[in-house]
Design brief:
alpha/beta, EC 3.-.-.-, hydrolase activity, Cysteine hydrolase family protein
Length: about 180
């Protein structure tokens, strides 16, 4: 595994609302530390950083634009020169111009981190893979929440996270650890 000089780090939905207690129990309590380590590495190396911000269409969402949950957490706030992509659905490529911007910049390799693993991370990684990008998901720099499956069976955040990563690995993306990403360049 080798990172390209212009590999983009895509940070998904690191907004204040994702910390709201009503979202329930989550997995991977060190995910933010790992995201911050990757972000610091990207900033030092001068590689592109892309911040994805969810602007919900639903007034009861933690990402509804009319309240502070939509704002970036200060520790993940975009810096000058970093990209901001706003989305209204889980997939960061949908109606956002992201693909065109990546192609114009000559970026072919993506590292995806953020939340929620089974929602915005998975849908964005699926599209990235389908579009032909060399897509990596840093499994320990993502997290999700407990969720019932379609049949009503309660699933832990760890189970939801694991199944989502299993859906992605080998078909849409390569699932790696943040340590593997950092070691790759």
């Amino acid at each position: 595994m080798q990172l390209q000089s212009n590999t983009a780090l895509i940070m998904i939905d690191q907004q204040k609302g994702i910390l709201h207690p009503r979202l329930g129990r989550r997995n991977n309590p060190q995910a933010e530390e790992r995201m911050l380590a990757l972000l610091a590495h990207w900033r030092r190396s001068g590689r592109p950083v892309i911040h994805v911000q969810h602007l919900s269409r639903s007034p009861d969402s933690v990402f509804w634009p009319e309240q502070d949950g939509v704002e970036f957490q200060p520790r993940f706030a975009p810096q000058e020169g970093e990209w901001l992509i706003q989305k209204q659905v889980p997939d960061a490529f949908c109606a956002s111009g992201l693909e065109a911007q990546l192609r114009e910049a000559g970026i072919g390799q993506l590292i995806i981190v953020g939340v929620a693993t089974n929602n915005s991370v998975e849908s964005t990684a699926r599209t990235a893979g389908n579009l032909g990008f060399d897509t990596w998901v840093a499994e320990d720099a993502c997290f999700t929440f407990d969720k019932a499956d379609y049949f009503g069976t309660p699933r832990t955040a760890e189970e939801v996270h694991g199944m989502s990563l299993g859906n992605l690995h080998g078909e849409y993306a390569t699932v790696v650890s943040s340590v593997q990403v950092l070691a790759a360049g």
